[in-house]
Specification:
- By secondary structure, the chain is of the alpha/beta class.
- It has 3 domains: 74 residues, Winged helix-like DNA-binding domain superfamily/Winged helix DNA-binding domain (Arc Repressor Mutant, subunit A), CATH 1.10.10.10; 136 residues, Nucleotidyltransferase, domain 5, CATH 3.30.420; 166 residues, Nucleotidyltransferase, domain 5 (2-Layer Sandwich).
- It has 13 helices and 16 strands.
- It has a 6-stranded mixed sheet with strand order 1-16-15-12-13-14, sandwiched between helices. A 5-stranded mixed sheet has the order 7-6-5-8-11.
- Strand 9 and strand 10 form a beta hairpin.
- Helix 10 packs parallel to helix 12.
- The longest helix is centred in the last third of the chain and has 25 residues.
- The structure holds zinc ion.
Length: 438
């Protein structure tokens, strides 16, 4: 079992004087401000209480009453219900200043990790990843497998998901029956609510009822979502987005993705497509995009766009070389001072800056997290890109949004998929109408 390595690097264009957010407490889940944690009428107190405990790691009852703006008696009743049903356990509280040593040792509530398990899978090119999480959000297994090919048939998707899941279960020492829900992330236009993959560059078929197909094949409850949404959920649950109410995550991998959090919640939109920054237009009648339209940001910034330029503008490597290898050659050449290679990155960086400027002007986020492999950002996150972003953002006498790079490991995507499963399982077990039995 390993934990994710995060190497955040904070550069704030025009945001001098803004301090980094305070160290988040242990635990996982969105850290909503006091009085807002249980404010939604639709969420019963027991669910709000459980989610607050999970978000803070451990929490004494008295603090929960304060956070949720309810009486200590209400907290006691809800906590007793959750303790009896095995969702929470009592642990020794961290002593605080002013605590006396007399009387009962201070007690806090914590999530009982083994009460439920969820799995997360990210299907991608060139590799797939999978994780298993306990109910406290701790990863118990992490698996990586190479993708069978660039584009998978529906049957290959089912087979690869099954192999990943079983390998993760074996590593965690669990069986399929232990998993309450599986979250699956993939690139493309994914209708999460209905479980339909409307279009994915990874799958050879469109309008595929993927969640139902996976569920039948694996004998598990399955939920699917766009991969960028899942990275955003991971940032909201584990990363720098935990205490930030409004932020955007932009991912640059094989394509360009985006997730948007508004008021501590992932924004999904009317059709469940959320935000598709990669397919916003930056050039009329411009370069052809994988989606079939022209002039999309992705067609200038994503891996495949760089590869296309590398193969046509440079005679660095022959055309039959695999895309990732070609991209690595391009990075090496740029680093070594090759002017043509550098100009490819400079152009991509300028397009990226315009795209990010549009995000700032549309949503006014507090923070933009750039998520992806470090290598890319060496070029796309250069000073002149930040300056271009600054120039294309609205200028007012207030600090600009912070921009940070998160070069997470590959597992962040799968962990986001597990988070999606976990948040739904939590609602199903503790939400309105749920019968919380001992
Ligand atoms: Zn497009």
């Amino acid at each position: 079992m390993t934990t994710e390595g995060i190497a955040p690097e904070s550069v704030a264009p025009g945001a001098a004087g803004l301090s980094a957010p305070a160290e988040p407490p242990t635990g996982c889940g969105p850290l909503r401000p006091a009085n807002a944690a249980g404010a939604e009428a639709a969420v019963p107190l027991r669910q709000a209480l459980f989610e607050s405990v999970r978000a803070h790691g451990t929490m004494p009852r008295v603090d929960l009453a304060r956070l949720l703006s309810v009486s200590p008696a209400s907290v006691t009743a809800a906590a007793n219900e959750l303790l009896a049903a095995g969702f929470l356990e009592e642990v020794a509280a961290t002593p605080r200043e002013g605590d006396t040593l007399r009387g009962r040792p201070p007690v806090a509530l914590a999530v009982r990790p083994g009460r439920a398990f969820v799995a997360g899978i990210k299907l991608s090119t060139p590799k797939h990843t999978a994780v298993i999480h306990d109910f406290a959000g701790t990863p118990l297994a992490e698996i990586t497998r190479r993708s069978a090919s660039l584009i998978l048939t529906p049957a290959e998707v089912l087979a690869q998901a099954e192999e990943l899941l079983d390998a993760a279960l074996a590593q965690a020492g669990l069986a399929r029956g232990d998993i309450l829900k599986l979250g699956v992330g993939l690139p493309g236009f994914i209708e999460s609510g209905s479980g339909i993959a409307l279009w994915s560059p990874l799958i050879s078929a469109a309008n595929l009822p993927l969640a139902a197909m996976l569920s039948d094949h694996l004998g598990l409850d399955v939920v699917i979502d766009n991969d960028a949404n899942l990275v955003t959920l991971a940032e909201l649950w584990f990363g720098d987005g935990r205490g930030v109410a409004n932020f955007a995550v932009v991912t640059i991998e094989y394509g360009v993705g985006m997730g948007l959090v508004i008021d501590n919640r992932l924004y999904r939109g009317a059709r469940g497509l959320g935000t598709e920054l990669g397919h916003t237009k930056v050039q009329l009648d411009g370069a052809l995009c994988r989606c079939g339209q022209r002039g999309c940001l992705e067609a200038y910034v994503a891996d495949y766009a760089l590869v296309r330029e590398a193969s046509t503008a440079l005679s660095l490597v022959p055309n039959h070389v695999p895309p990732m290898q070609m991209l690595e050659s391009l990075y090496r050449e740029a680093k070594a001072g090759n002017a043509a290679a550098r100009s490819i990155f400079r152009r991509a960086g300028r397009y990226l800056a315009v795209g990010l400027g549009n995000v700032v002007n549309l949503f006014d986020p507090e923070l933009i997290l750039l998520s992806g492999e470090r290598m890319r950002w060496d070029y796309l996150y250069a000073d002149d890109v930040l300056a271009e972003l600054q120039r294309s953002s609205i200028q007012v006498d207030r600090p600009s949004p912070r921009v940070e790079i998160h070069a997470w490991g590959d597992m962040i995507w799968a962990r986001g998929a597990a988070v999606l499963a976990m948040s739904q399982v939590t609602s199903e077990l503790l939400g309105p109408g749920a019968v919380v039995a001992a």
